[in-house]
Amino acid sequence: MIEQLSTAARADLMQRLRHCLGDDGIIEESESQRPFECDALILYCDLPLAVVLPATVAQVQQVLRICHQYAVPVVARGAGTGLCAGAMPHPDGVLLVLSKLDRILDIDPLARTARVQPGVSNLAISEAATCHGLYYAPDPSSQIACTIGGNVAENSGGVHCLKYGLTVHNILSLNILTVAGDALTIGSLGLDSPGYDLLALFTGSEGLLGIVTEITVRLLPSPELAQVVMAGFASVSAAGDAVGAVIAAGIIPAGLEMMDSLALQAAEDFAHAGYPRDAAAILLCEVDGSREEVAQHAAQVAHLFDSMGATSLAMSQDEAQRALLWKGRKSAFPAVGRLAPDYYCMDGTIPRGQVSYVLNEIYRLAGHYGLRVANVFHAGDGNLHPLILFDASDPQEVHKAEQFGAKILELSVRVGGCITGEHGVGVEKLRQMASQFSTEELLQLEDIKHAFDPALNLNPGKGVPILKRCQEYRALPARHQHD
Amino acid sequence: MIEHDYSTAADRSEHIIAALRRARDNRRPVTISAGGSKRHLAGRDCEYELLDVSEHRGIVDYQPQELVITARAGTPLSELNARLQEQQQILPFEPPQFGGRATLGGTLACNLSGPARPWRGSIRDTVLGVQLINGKCERLNFGGRVMKNVAGYDVSRLQAGALGTLGVVCEVSLKVLPRPEKTLTLCYAMRAPDAIQSMNRRAGEPKPLSGACWLDNHLYLRLSGAASAVDSTAAQWGGDILAADTRIWEELRDMTLPFFSGEAPLWRFSIKPSAPVKPDFGPTLIDWCGAQRWVRGDYARAALEQVAASAGGHVTLFRGGDRSTEVRSPLSATEQALQQRLKHAFDPDGILNPGRLYSWL
Fold this sequence. Notes:
Strand content of chain B: 15-25%
Shape of chain A: globular
Radius of gyration of chain A: 23 Å
Number of helices of chain B: 11
Largest sheet of chain B: 5 strands, antiparallel
Number of strands of chain B: 17
Structural class of chain B: alpha+beta
Oligomer: heterodimer
Number of strands of chain A: 18
Radius of gyration of chain B: 21 Å
Largest interface: A-B, 94 and 91 residues
Largest sheet of chain A: 7 strands, antiparallel
Shape of chain B: globular
Strand order of the largest sheet of chain A: 15-12-14-13-17-18-16
């Protein structure tokens, strides 16, 4: 396990970090560290030995070398928008904040790539590329704030995944620093690389294998046109069947979203998007591409929804209408957030065909725990976000919300899905890893970790449970430590 | 309609595990093989005791509305294609069939994808989950049958291009796509440097491009998608519309074009798509919108590696030539050490295709 430094060693470490970063590159006072105590999953907080904010890759490298020498844990952080406590500081470690590395280094319009630093926000890449008619496709809801480095760490998705893929499909190359501070480039400017595909392994590795210092992303041509078809349905099963019908018709929508009754009512109150408040579920289906293709597919989708029993139907006729129809969906989380003091967002993925069964099970569990739940579903790719409403000031409700959440994840695995589609494991879902993976599989993941970080100093206690280091892991009580 | 015999489907994974146990106990490495179509392609020549997994075959599950198919590794691609065809669906990555002998497992191991790769992704991009048996003879499942899954490291994609050195892949789940409504090929007489410029500029337009290659002084662009979009793009872009237009793409995919015949060493460059053409090369074929370039001839490996590196990529001696030394671009010392440790994490006794990727791996 990680050993605490002696007082003298700690003083040495701090002095060396200060020397490397200067006074404005390190935060040592607890009060000043508070903004960094958690990511967007605020249930899990802690304070590190030091928060460091390097301004250059060379400084990042020095920080890693110093930490390596003292065998001190290093936790990387971007904008802190993560939803699994993956960026929660380690109490005996250094929090490595990469937000100052925020330059777009180069855009190559002919090769359709952008070379960027990890602290660049997701949206800033598309904004910089738009003058070339290009954009960066993955668009997580937090895209205004979240950084591309964090997107790589979590393999972030967004509402356009089914058609355009995840982060792993949209990056070409990474500059990496190992835990010892050694630099290497993985991937290439071609479409593959020799040897093992370390690019695939790093993407979604939650900062456990190395620190990303530069990313080359693929850019796509901005579609000529996008159009949204919105339909209300009298039951979640009717909406689920309509999703299957779109896929069966040979259409791959750019986005296909479902909201259930509680979610769509909250969103409508918040955004006044024109959603049918009496529907049990609505679907938002966006098609994009060339003008002819969009016209053809939008008409097909509207006809399909109608024939599948839609109780209401609307189609965007211009960009303002399209933006309004999306506004409700994009503000669904904060809108639902107004219904209760707190909400807990889950992230299982399920086979699309199971959505009706899973939602009904979730409603049953909600009754059992006496908690309300609103469901937002990336129906195109099967990623379900139940938002459990609770009051964090009531320890019993916190406990019930966590139990309810765990049940939902186990349900996702049982129907053939997984515990996390895009938010990552972090601290939050460490325990559920055992419901998705066997002991041998967890040990294989652990062996991969060892290959990159033998002393387990990169983001310890996250992502992959370390069974060898924690024999009692499976016997731990089902309650994590936090306050 | 071709009749396919699905009765040969069988789960032979216990047999594979038993064979691997013997290999481990006797410290005798195995050469993993199914259809044998790529035995002397892509990797170094390494002959050990043959582990034939061709009988471990059959489609395990196919859910057209989920866009997911799961099959055993020994399943011939022809069998997968036939089943998908019934539902008007396709393998997005357009893999080479190699005369019907290519299997799913071998295609994943070699990470082989056809002309659609820059637009529809590779098999690496398409794989959702795998079942594999590692060098410790453990049966492991990673990923799954859903589109999004970020639990644990992405061990499934790691198998793409690993040439079976991390595990015997037994079962693979893939994302599939609807067959495009219409496909059409445009042809332009053009020199290579102009073709590189042209194909990359076209790829920056929001049009249904699905193939861009150059051979014999002609640029070929393939359009696939909604009929209305394909027709209007063809009208805007001009060029000669090819009749019998699928053949060139099939022959490119399966490497049966005259360019690929003969004994001369075949080199594969995987580089930045817009990289300029090197005028001093002999016969060249450009695919993947410039990102994959094939070159024929006896060249010094180091010189080609230099060219590939300066174009942001790497080169492989794909077929022929001296396959007893390295056939891939070298890695940095740091990366080489990491790759060796990764290999050790999966195959501590080194029984799975050792030396096939690199002599030191």
